[in-house]
Structures are given as C-alpha cells and as structure tokens.
C-alpha cells in the first residue's frame, strides 16, 4: 500500500481526488467557510440576523456587475464575487423575504438602461462609451428605492453594514424622526475665510439616509410631539425659551443627544472669527446639565499626551504631536454600552470634560474617556495656537481621567421649576430620562474621521475612524432601534503599533527637553552679554572685549554640541524603531521556518527511533 501511494500513479490518484473534493465542495457547499479573522469580519452579526428575521414584506435586490467589461481587473472581480456570495447569504437567511436578481448590464442593453434608471454609477472604460457597473439597487412593496451606486474596493470592510443598512431602510415604512438644532454649517454653505462653497458633512448625509431629519430653529419654544430624538450640535445660540423646551421634552420622555464644546474649531461665525476670542467658539446647555447631575466648564479643554494625534506641520518639517486632538482607543471606550461596544477608534478635537455631580440622582455612565496622562487647559490656549508643539511646553499630567461622552439615566428634576418668561411652569420631574452628552463637536467634521473621494461625480466616503458610527449608533439606540449597531464598524480598523508609538513619545520627550535646554542657554547667554555691555562705553558697543568673545565662542560650542545631541536623539528614535523592525523580520522570515523545520526533524527522529524499538 505504501509503495502504491508513493508511486507516480498513486500521487496522480491523490491529486485527482483532491481536485474532485474541491470541485464537489464548490458545488455542494458553496457558502461553507471558516472565519479565522480576529474580529469575525466574514461572519454575519447578530444585528444582520435580527434584521433579516424581522422582515415582514418581500424585498427585491438588483445586483448589477459588468462581468465582460471587468475581465482584466482581477481585484475588482474577486470583490464582486464576495459581494455576490454575501447577497446570496442574505437571500438564504431571509427565508424567501429577499429576492435577488443578478444582472450583467451589457453596453446599450435594456439592463444598462435599468441600471441608469436606478441611479447606479457607471465608470467609463473606453472611448467607445462602455461603462463598468458595480452597484446594488433595492425596492420594497411600496416602490421605495435604496441604492448603493458603486462598491468601492476601499469600503470592503463596511460591506455587511452597507447591505444591512439598505435592507433595514427598505423594511421600514417610516424612518424615525430626528429633530436637529445646529450652530455649525453641517449642511454645507459658504466658507467665510475662503468664500468657497463647502459640501454637507458626511455625518449629516449618513444620518439623513437612516432618519427623517427635521431642522428646528434656535428659538423654538416647543419641541414637536412627533420628534422621538432631539439632536443638538453646538447649541450656543439657543434662547432660554428653547432650553426650557428641551427641558420639558426630556422630562416627558423624549430622547436627547447633545454635542457641546469648549472650543469648536469648526465654528466659523463672525463672533468666533475674532482672533484670540475663545468664548465665541464655546457652547453649553445652560442650567440643564446641572439639573441632570453633570458639571461642565465651557472654558477648559482636555489635553492628553498619550492620546495626542500626530499632525503635519508642513513641507520640510517633522510631524508634531497635538495633545488637544486625541485618538480614543478601545481601552478608553465603554465596551458594555450598545452605542460604543462595536467601536474601535474615535477622534476628539479640543473636547471638554463632563464630571458627575456628587449626590446626583441620575446615573452617569462614561462612554469615552481620556487616559491618566491628561490634564485640563484653558480654551484660550487654542485661540492663537500656531504650533501644536507649544502645548507640550510645561505640560504636566494631573493623573486624572476625564470623560468626553456620557449617558445620563434615572430620575431628574426640571432646571426651570418656575418656568420661563412667557411660559407657565410645566413638568417638574421625571422618573427616568435618557440623555447622551458629548463634550466635543469637531469630532463630527469630515477632517476628524473620514476622507471623501470624488468618483466620477459620486462622493465616496472612506472612514478611518468610527466617529460617524458613534453618531448613528447613538441615534439608533435612542430611537429604539439597535439591530444595526452590532453590524456597524466591523471593517478594516486601524491597528496602531503601540510599541512604536511609545518609542516615538519617549524620543519626543527627550527631544523637547533638549530643545528647552537649548532655549534656556540662549536666554542665559543673551542676559550675560547684556550684563557685559552695561559697563561699556555706548560709542564702543560694536567692539567686543575678550570676555565677550570668549562668552560667544563658548555659546557657539555649546549650541553645536546640543544640536549634535538633538540629531543623536532623532537618530536614536529611528534606530530603536529600525531594530524592532529587524527583529520582527527575523522572527517571521527566519525563526519561524527554522522552528518548524526543527519540529519536523524531531518528529521524524522520534518516529524512526520508535520503529527501531
């Protein structure tokens, strides 16, 4: 038998059996797979399963892909295969409630006309006019339509969410209604500085896909009864009557999501444009937060050395660490709350601190926090900031952790027990409120979490942080729908090299210390030169004494020595990182194969010794 197996004919039989097994698996088990990824990116989430199980009316999905036109694009065809397989999984899991139609829109065919009718985006390939289609359209029994114009390769990690969002939207006869009061140009407009039009924020566009957004005025005196969730973004211009309306809305059971800010960098109003005025860019909720058991100072910003983002300072300059722009990683994200549980990375720009009031009846649950390497800094420090490195001068962490976002639940009393002018006293208390407060508004701006690319006139967002997911998760949760929350943010996340980042921070600390020492020596030398010149004849100030020349030469020598130290520190930083990379390469390229080889040899020797005995 052994001779037969190891003979040429035996090996050929084994090869044919292997090929036959794979062919049979593809035919009989086309959807079978094992997901070995850490985050289970290729496994249906519970949210998707729940959405499909709750379908009541049939949905038609039309998947358009130009098979013939994509023959030369292997990567795109592989992605299209994955999309098709996942759509078939949706169809199977929905148990007849999803009808999938796979269409190859040939040039100048009725199928191509149908794709254009749905609004799918075709990419021109040749001068002859051939277009490549790779999108999805869905319809329900009410003839409502939802479309994914084009499946971008960069968005592969968000595939399940996009498909589940489309199905969930078609399954709802009415979208949840969200009231919006914003003091920032979320819907776009004219930029005051450049006088150029700006597009709507991606966060607002995504919100409008999921919800019926109704914009309200800053002086509204009553929140409409059909508003289920109220969203406040930088509400710095709200009147007292409007704040009272919010107070009564929350007490009668309405859900509130509020984004306030001690220094909203995206606020480009005339008051905020005055250079050096930090107050014009701050917002709060008046007495409401205190009534809900929260303390908040609109003049203080949280800075964090460990979470600080690395930002560019322009061509020819080294990047700087901005300790006011922070990257909040999983260790500082609440893993229990349904809003934040699936999120991996959020960014905060000059955010404030929310502090629970001692003895408050409400329950204060932190959702996003800083690390212990943080402190509070006056918002005025950011009004004239030109170099982020200036924030590090004299920085000392106070070893406290600060809360950027929190959920408030439990009994609460009215902040206006006597009512306000023109309004009689209303509800005085509530047994339970449901409020989410975030002490930052800049996290919603595009630059803090998403890059937008223009693909033949179609805006394609490419998120690199989960800020948009946080907004939609919170609105989903507060509106009573949490099926999509477990689906969102299951894509390719940023996997930071924490060891490398620590090496960079340590080296930067040494660099700053050397720089400060150099500046101190410069100041001391200037002072010494001034003292030497005090006793000189004013007419002979241009002539240097021997003592002055010696002092200057000593300064030059010290300056050159310290500059060499600075170069050595920067070289040491790169050297540490390079050594780490060399070690990893050795482990992956040489050590692991060697260990496997030795393991096989030991197994062979042990087997041979056993056979001898």
From TrEMBL:
Residues 38-138 form the DUF7088 domain. Residues 73-100 form a coiled coil. The keyword Iron-sulfur does not apply. InterPro entries: ABC_transp_unknown (IPR019196), DUF7088 (IPR055396). The chain crosses the membrane at residues 586-606. It comes from the Bacteria. Residues 175-474 form the ABC-type uncharacterised transport system domain. It holds the Pfam family ABC_transp_aux. Keywords: Coiled coil, Membrane, Transmembrane, Transmembrane helix. This is GldG family protein. It comes from Halopseudomonas sabulinigri.
